[in-house]
Amino acid sequence: MDKIKIENLEVFAKHGVFPEENVLGQKFLVSATLYTDTRRAGKTDDLTASIHYGEVSQFIDAYLKRHTFKLIERAAESLAEELLLHTEHLQKVELEVKKPWAPVGLPLEYVSVKIERQWHTAYIALGSNMGEKQQYLDGAVKALDAWEGCRVEKTSSWLVTPPYGVTDQDDFLNGCLELKTLLTPEELLEALHEIEQEAGRERIIHWGPRTLDLDIIFYDDLIMGTDTLCIPHVEVQKRDFVLKPLHEIAPYKHHPGNGKTVREMLEEVMSSL
């Protein structure tokens, strides 16, 4: 990925733990590396095909002057998120906020916080087999698209499937969506659980009836496992009701563990039925 760099932009702002810092203010130095694809701009000489670093510099200056934070960690985090949300073509940002006169009572050049944030691509499976099933699924799509730091890019059609696990229950309506997100996997899981709860989801019977079921299938090419979250979803390669709608929107997405595409996994599942 190509990079556009802004080095040591001087901003006079009022961030700090001590009250006098919030009143008097001081100089901060901000450096940003903007990750984007400059190919089209490089071939056409068209500024709209790239990132306007002058406008980004003005945005950084205005944002840090308009807000007051106790910690430069908070200043960096908030600024990175705002840049990703509001800068066209920006896919990833490395941001360093330097505080030259940090009040530590010792001589130093500066204290700084450096972070890296980016858009991630997640695939979410949706299911419902209680009440107004399509209404629950449509509502979940809207809720995710409206969630701060999330953008729904693609949605599959809804598929009627027999229940999985506990079979003595109503048929499910299933689907998948592609999500661009700034959330970490854990934060995304919390968001999904909150949306489920708002839809009246009750976790009483494992694989039992539910108004809304939201699962993270893939998150970039991440492989992780904790007590509460496994990515990729541990049973994605076995579930035709996940693979069928996922195939509609991402047939060539590779499983980072087994290396197979969604299409290949779906073909294997269908041949075994």
Automatic annotation (TrEMBL):
Highest rank taxon of the organism: Bacteria
UniProt pathway annotation: Cofactor biosynthesis; tetrahydrofolate biosynthesis; 2-amino-4-hydroxy-6-hydroxymethyl-7,8-dihydropteridine diphosphate from 7,8-dihydroneopterin triphosphate: step 3/4; Cofactor biosynthesis; tetrahydrofolate biosynthesis; 2-amino-4-hydroxy-6-hydroxymethyl-7,8-dihydropteridine diphosphate from 7,8-dihydroneopterin triphosphate: step 4/4
EC numbers on record: 4.1.2.25, 2.7.6.3
Domain 7,8-dihydro-6-hydroxymethylpterin-pyrophosphokinase: 206-217
Coiled-coil stretches: none
GO BP of this protein: folic acid biosynthetic process; tetrahydrofolate biosynthetic process
Keyword Transferase: yes
CDD domains, A to Z: DHNA_DHNTPE, HPPK
Catalytic activity: 7,8-dihydroneopterin = 6-hydroxymethyl-7,8-dihydropterin + glycolaldehyde; 6-hydroxymethyl-7,8-dihydropterin + ATP = (7,8-dihydropterin-6-yl)methyl diphosphate + AMP + H(+)
Similarity remark: In the N-terminal section; belongs to the DHNA family.
Record-linked NCBIfam families: folB, folB_dom, folK
Cited function: Catalyzes the conversion of 7,8-dihydroneopterin to 6-hydroxymethyl-7,8-dihydropterin.
Record PANTHER family: 2-AMINO-4-HYDROXY-6-HYDROXYMETHYLDIHYDROPTERIDINE PYROPHOSPHOKINASE
Protein name: Bifunctional folate synthesis protein
Organism of provenance: Faecalicatena orotica
